């Protein structure tokens, strides 16, 4: 399990304090075996959050909780031009020295810069503060357009949407672009799977994603390329060169799903992408995804996402058409492929 420590300095915007927990929890909720522990840690002098809607919060954890964190995140805060509170510089330097990542959101980059860890590196901050950061810290190469800038162990972002871009960037590094894409989709559309009940399988809880480095990669890629065919468990096992029982054990261990549950979920995920990026009718999408009939597509889509294909398409285009991965043409006869937003 990867430990994410969010270091709260006085006057941190509330949405920047809570966004990491929401993002990493969503990734873990919908993807097996993704696992994160998010800790909110208070820096010395912390009293509460800042605007636009300040609120008080009791944070019992302190700098000592950074000692074993895999990633330390620095949200923006009110006194970002001041020297870091006592102990913060030493804690951040120690984290980097032992191999941890450090991420800064918006004006949190000023605090990271004050530690000297960004000297000679590229970094990003809030758009309106890029010139000021460059003037105060001339040894930093400030990227005025960087959504997310990664340089060595230091990662920084402009701060749009409370650091969502930075969190998704870190999830991509840990678990691949597919997990980050599905996590963003869940965050923006709030299409969380229903709690499992009688008759519900793990496909209602997890998205189908093969972990990076899994030996199942070749067979899951073959399954995705042949979704329009009526694949059977025996055919999948034969292609993998395994017996049915051995294949099922491998799938459960690596994905949390049986092979047929995985197949159904990637059919639904393909339908999601076609609904997002094409104007094809439901009848055509049902055929291309191997779900056969519009009624079958609607049944499985509702069960997996909690909504109908038509509602999903309308919601996606209305809410996230300007912030999601843009379409790029795929090879003839294939679906459009997602293209991640630029990460510097």
Explain the overall architecture.
The structure is a single chain. Helix 1 packs parallel to helix 5 and helix 10 packs across helix 12. The chain has 13 helices and 10 strands. The two termini are 27 Å apart. The protein folds into 2 domains: 174 residues, Class I glutamine amidotransferase (GATase) domain (Rossmann fold), CATH 3.40.50; 143 residues, Homeodomain-like (Arc Repressor Mutant, subunit A, Orthogonal Bundle), CATH 1.10.10. The chain has a 6-stranded mixed β-sheet with strand order 2-1-3-4-8-7, with helices on both faces. A two-stranded parallel sheet has the order 5-6. A two-stranded antiparallel sheet has the order 9-10. It is α/β, with parallel strands linked by helices and 344 residues long. The longest helix has 19 residues.
Describe this structure in a few short sentences.
This protein has helices spanning 14-30, 88-97, 108-114, 130-136, 164-175, 177-189, 217-225, 233-240, 244-255, 259-277, 282-288, 294-305, 309-320; strands at 2-8, 36-42, 71-74, 101-105, 122-123, 141-142, 148-151, 154-157, 327-328, 337-338. With 344 residues, the chain is of the alpha/beta class.
